Amino acid sequence: xxxxMYQLTEKQLNRCAPMPELPTDEEFKTGWKKSHHGKTRGWGxxxxxxxxxxxxxxxxxQRGIWQGRVDKARGLPYSEERNExxxxxxYFRGYTDYESNRRGWDNNTQQRFDDEYLTD
Length: 120
Known about the structure:
Blueprint: H1 10-15, H2 25-35, H3 43-55, H4 59-73, H5 85-96, H6 98-103, H7 107-117
């Protein structure tokens, strides 16, 4: 099958935000210490999770997750073609979780997706 590119809707773009400036390790560690009763243990994983949560709100992540779903639905092989880590993370999650995500969609969403991306 030929590849179709996913286009974000206006509503999806309105919900997206640019990636904010990240705190330095020292700033994050200080905030972590304050919120964890003086302990710094686990701050690295906390910063990782914080960055991942910020990435999921970017337009590149959203574009990647939906493109991964489209490629999986069309039977195309997995591919990482961009250098942006937000896009690649979204693409990976969209591609690998497509079947389980699709089961959560309502019938109208499934029908719209199929009409737009699975028909040639």
